[in-house]
Amino acid sequence: MIAAALVCMSWAFMPPAAAAANASAEVHAAAAPADYFSYPLPTWQPHCLGFGSQWRLCNGTVLRRCSATGAIWLHTGVDITTGIQPVAAAANGVIAGYTVDPTFKGGMLIRHNTAQGVVLTQYWHVWPRRGFGVGAVVTRGQVFADVADMGSRTHLHFGVYIGNFTATSWRGALPPGACDGFPAFPNRFVNPNEFMQAHLQPQASPSPFCHRAGS
Ligand SMILES: [Zn+2]
């Protein structure tokens, strides 16, 4: 009974063959398919802003409004409480972008080839480690950056963007309705916490597949 369950579980958790086949069509053939995702930090405690929060500092100061309507922009990622520590890649992929903002420090994007298509993970307020420039291949859990020192405002911003790179992929917030040349929230961003929960590596537990595979 136990042996049968172990065998069928390893079968059930084999990545779908389609994931590997789709990956070969992408430009960055060197990157392994992203079968599973994991959190980029060892702890995942919310900071001041969640997905869809009004874009404000922790003290309530509004960061951006639409010029005509005054509508407050909405946060496209989740802010995570952290000190200055290593940041790990959320999944196998390729570093697809690096930019520096005088206020927000470094921003980095990693492109992942998943069975459902291309996904970008977005990291703001980080500095890349040596050797992790644009084009570098990363594996899930590999440290590629460190949290940047922003004093009392130090945190990690993590976003998930469905699809290939566009100028919007860099945005940490978007207006509630299109304004000033920017598309409406959420555009192609999804709730990062929901995405991660749906893409974590399954824990070993009884599966409906086991009964069929073991019988
Ligand atoms: Zn943020």
Can you tell me about this structure?
Strands 2, 4, 5, 6, 8, 10 and 12 form a seven-stranded antiparallel β-sheet that branches. The protein has a three-stranded antiparallel β-sheet with strand order 3-9-7, with no helix packed on it. A two-stranded antiparallel sheet has the order 1-11. It starts with a helix and ends with a helix. The protein is globular. With 215 residues, it is an alpha+beta fold. The N terminus and C terminus are likely disordered. The structure holds zinc ion. The site of zinc ion has 6 residues, from loops.
Chain-wise SSE layout:
Blueprint: H1 2-12, H2 17-23, E1 74-75, E2 78-81, E3 86-88, E4 93-101, E5 105-114, E6 117-124, E7 126-128, E8 137-138, E9 143-147, E10 155-162, E11 173-174, E12 189-190, H3 192-199, H4 208-214
Antiparallel strand pairs: 1-11, 2-10, 3-9, 4-5, 4-8, 5-6, 6-10, 7-9, 10-12
Bound molecules: zinc ion.
Zinc ion (ZN) binds at residues 49, 75, 77, 79, 157, 172.
